[in-house]
Amino acid sequence: MADCVFCRIAQGEIPANKVYEDQSVICFLDANPASKGHTLVVTKSHYENFTTVPKDLLSHAIQVAQMVSQACLAQLGATGVNVVTNVGRAAGQSVMHFHLHVIPRYEDDGLGQLFTETLSLPSDQLLLLADSIRQGM
Ligand code: 5GP
Ligand code: ZN
């Protein structure tokens, strides 16, 4: 995709601080990091998001994210990691090319919990929700 920033980084047309690369994924530092070492794991082929990337490639990408996470814990003094992927604009996805965020976490880094607001739903709604999801699988 000529107008996709991550395709262009994968093809070497736009520079990035590369962390890792193999045949099918490339990892580089996020240009607007949430924390020190915030790394993106990006498939070299263009898929819109987590829900459309082929299973084998997804498995590989998550294994690479594990490797990056381990390296952040071992090398950066991080004591935790958030691994996140955003699907769709409602979820905050801004680059429509599948990627995983590896966000190293540090004691008192000020980022807090990812989900601070929670819903309290009645049990009949919980049953319906679980049922709806089951029917879609
Ligand atoms: P999303 O919001 O789609 O889950 O995450 C996209 C991420 O890509 C953002 O955190 C943003 O800072 C990062 N990003 C966008 N454009 C570039 C770029 O050209 N280079 C790098 N290194 N990161 C980028
Ligand atoms: Zn792309």
Q: Give the overall shape, derived from the CA principal axes.
A: globular
- What's the count of strands? 5
Helical content band: 25-40%
Question: CATH superfamily, please?
Answer: HIT-like
At the third CATH level, what is the topology name?
Answer: HIT family, subunit A
Q: What value does the average pLDDT take?
A: 97
Number of helices: 3
Residue stretches low in confidence (pLDDT < 50, at least 5 long) are: none
User: Over all CA atoms, what is the radius of gyration?
Assistant: 17 Å
CATH class: Alpha Beta
What is the ordering of alpha helices and beta strands? HEEEHEEH
Query: Distance between the terminal alpha carbons, to the nearest Å?
Result: 30 Å
The biggest sheet amounts to: 5 strands, antiparallel
CATH architecture group name? 2-Layer Sandwich
Overview of the structural elements:
This protein has 137 residues and is α+β, with helices and mostly antiparallel strands. The protein has one domain (5-136): HIT-like (HIT family, subunit A, 2-Layer Sandwich). It has helices at 5-10, 55-75, 123-135, and strands spanning 18-21, 25-29, 39-43, 80-84, 99-105. It has a five-stranded antiparallel β-sheet, covered by helices on one side. It is globular, with a radius of gyration of 17 Å. Zinc ion binds at residues 1, 4, 6-7, 46, 97.
